[in-house]
Write a structure and sequence with these properties.
The structure holds 2 protein chains of 2 kinds.
Chain A (H helix, E strand, L loop, with lengths): L7 E8 L9 E8 L4 E5 L6 H8 L7 E6 L2 E2 L5 H6 L1 E5 L10 H5 L1 H5 L4 H14 L4 H4 L9 H13 L5 E5 L7 H17 L3 E6 L2 H7 L2 E6 L2 E6 L1 H6 L4 H7 L4 H7 L19 E3 L4 H9 L5 E5 L2 E6 L1 H9 L6
Parallel strand pairs in A: 3-8, 3-9, 6-7, 7-8, 11-12
Antiparallel strand pairs in A: 1-2, 1-4, 4-5, 9-10, 12-13
Helix pairs in contact in A: 5-7, 12-13
Chain B lengths: L1 H12 L1 H34 L4 H11 L4 H12 L3 H25 L3 H9 L4 H31 L11 H10 L3 H32 L1
Helix pairs in contact in B: 1-9, 2-3, 2-5, 2-7, 2-8, 2-9, 3-5, 4-5, 5-7, 6-7, 7-9, 8-9
The chains are: A alpha/beta, B mainly alpha.
Bound molecules: adenosine-5'-diphosphate and magnesium ion (MG).
């Protein structure tokens, strides 16, 4: 699959549940460019799950449109639509009567792949989510820890290599250390193979760690939609500022990846310059810059990825900051 | 140990009658379970998916307080003596446990597993067949097991309305004050109930293994 992942666009989406006085989603218009890792952040009950489920039509909007790759989803057979989207939820929803490999093989089997193909793919996926296949293939979900179950849930969602991944508080029930590992792995997966990801969370740290695009929701509406650094620099409302803790810039910068403000190294040989690892955070980079370095080389092993400067961080903070 | 010898003696000397009674008993019970399953399994699945399901189940559950003897007395004036009357009474008896357990079984399937299945692009039929049914099977089967035990036990009363079965032997034993005959009839009825339960347990293992 070399085609670039599709854009997801919401056009004035409203969802009012039967009997509810207020709309759960109240006029959301939003574009998520193809290949973006978008994180929907907001307090419990603000409509994040509802909005997410309108994308794969587990929930039908009361009004408005959702376009995936430019196609109105209401015009697509929901079963076909869903086969092109992975879905991971906090409660995992693994099939308790199936083994790990049977769970992961669900979609490949649905679409009629042959046994050899499925077996190869399952082993590959168990490996991708860092579980040793030989040990885990034949286990039942209840014989796994919460974090391991979540890995299987992720593998199952990735089985058909969908260009879109929908994740609803997927790491909410996992302990803090495992949670950080899973976040790193999801970020690494995204770096390897760009998908359009819609990731729901109420955890601000998690949002800043993962997002290319941060979408803050409140009472069924989008309060602000911007790259994390830009939102940090210019929160659109007091609500956003309070929610993301914009006062504590240093803490937030520790969660944002250096790639958010990476610039090309240019022609100068950066061999002697101070450098940071490509996995470092902007917080780490800023500390070094404040120590007096004019610019930092960002390295992945021996490879030079680019440079970080104070001016570059400021430029990145301004980029997209007017979006809402 | 005198009674045991007498019972053995009775069983050996009355083999033909015993075989007939046993056959009638099995036929009556099997027909009742089959009919009740055909009605209540689909109804239970349907009830589990609808808001009104709960009230239907509660109503049906109330039927369970009626003793089997009263049921027989109830159908008698309408349907007269014979196999059909006994069958209807036993079907009514078998329905509640099957219906209630099927409803509970399907309601109890993890909602998130169903949601995940739907999100993966399974059709409603695929969700029912591949996710809900295998997960519901154990509780459904325990309902069938319960119903079969109740039916086999209550079918001993069929003799009262002329539908035969092991009740013939038990009643004869009572009337003629022949404890051996009474013992043989009761023991066979008990064994049959255990066998029916075992058969459903085996069926459950097979079904779970295959799904
Ligand atoms: N199936 C439903 N029926 C009725 N109300 C619902 C349903 N699902 C969610 N809601 C309501 O819609 C609002 C938004 O819910 P949700 O999207 O789950 O919020 P979040 O995921 O942000 O916590 C809440 O007030 C919730 O109670
Ligand atoms: Mg939610």
């Amino acid at each position: 699959m070399s085609a670039s992942p599709p854009e997801i666009r919401f056009d004035d989406v409203v969802k009012t549940f039967g009997g509810a006085a207020r709309a759960a989603v109240n006029g959301v218009t939003l574009s998520i460019p193809g290949g973006t890792f978008a994180v929907i952040l907001g307090p419990s009950g603000c409509g994040k799950t509802t909005l997410l489920k309108t994308v794969n039509r587990l929930i039908e909007p009361s009004s408005g449109f959702i376009f995936v790759g430019g196609v109105d989803t209401a015009s697509v057979d929901p079963v076909r639509l869903r086969r092109g989207m992975g879905y991971v939820i906090q409660n995992v929803g693994l099939f308790p009567h199936m083994t790990v490999s049977e769970n992961i093989a669900t979609v490949p089997r649905l679409v009629g792949q042959d046994d050899a193909q499925i077996r190869r793919r399952v082993d590959e996926l168990i490996d991708v989510v860092h579980l040793p296949p030989a040990e885990y293939r034949e286990r039942r979900p209840r014989a796994l820890s919460g974090g391991q179950q979540q890995r299987v849930g992720l593998a199952r969602a990735l089985a058909a290599d969908p260009p879109i991944l929908l994740m609803d508080e997927p790491f909410g029930a996992v302990d803090a250390i495992e949670r950080t590992h899973l976040q790193d792995e999801v970020a690494a997966l995204h770096a390897q193979r760009a998908r359009t990801v819609l990731f729901v969370t109420h955890d601000v740290d998690e949002a800043f760690r993962l997002a290319d695009l941060l979408i803050v929701m409140r009472d069924g509406r989008v309060e602000q939609s911007a790259p994390p650094l830009a939102m940090l620099a210019r929160p659109a409302t007091a609500f956003v500022s309070d929610l993301i803790g914009a006062d504590d810039v240093v803490r937030r910068l520790r969660a944002i990846h250096v790639s958010a403000a990476l610039e090309p190294a240019g022609e100068t040989d950066a061999a002697d310059e101070p450098s940071v690892d490509s996995h470092a955070s902007l917080g780490d980079a800023l500390s070094l810059l404040l120590d007096g370095a004019a610019r930092l080389a960002v390295r992945d092993g021996a490879d030079l990825r680019g440079v970080i400067t104070v001016a570059g961080i400021l430029r990145a903070a301004r980029r997209g900051a007017t979006a809402s | 140990m005198h009674l045991v010898a007498q019972s053995l003696d009775f069983a050996l000397s009355h083999r033909p009658e015993i075989v007939v009674a046993l056959r009638q008993h099995i036929a009556l019970s099997a027909a009742a379970i089959a009919a009740a399953s055909a009605i209540c399994l689909p109804l239970g699945v349907a009830a589990s998916r609808r808001p009104w399901g709960r009230s239907v189940i509660t109503a049906v559950n109330a039927v369970r307080v009626i003793p089997s003897l009263a049921l027989l007395a109830f159908v008698l004036p309408w349907l007269g003596l014979g196999f059909t009357s006994a069958l209807i009474a036993l079907i009514v008896l078998a329905c509640p446990p099957i219906l209630v357990n099927t409803d509970i079984a399907f309601r109890g399937v993890d909602q998130y597993a169903i949601e995940a299945a739907r999100a993966m692009g399974m059709s409603d039929a695929q969700i029912l067949l591949r996710v809900q049914t295998p997960l519901a099977l154990p509780v459904v089967f325990s309902g069938l097991r319960l119903a079969s035990i109740e039916v086999v036990a209550s079918a001993t009363l069929a003799t009262l309305i002329g539908a035969g079965g092991l009740g013939d032997i038990i009643m004869a034993g009572l009337e003629l004050e022949q404890p051996a005959e009474l013992l043989v009839g009761s023991l066979l009825a008990a064994l049959l109930a255990v066998a029916a339960a075992a058969a459903f347990s085996a069926g459950e293992r097979l079904a779970v293994a295959r799904s």
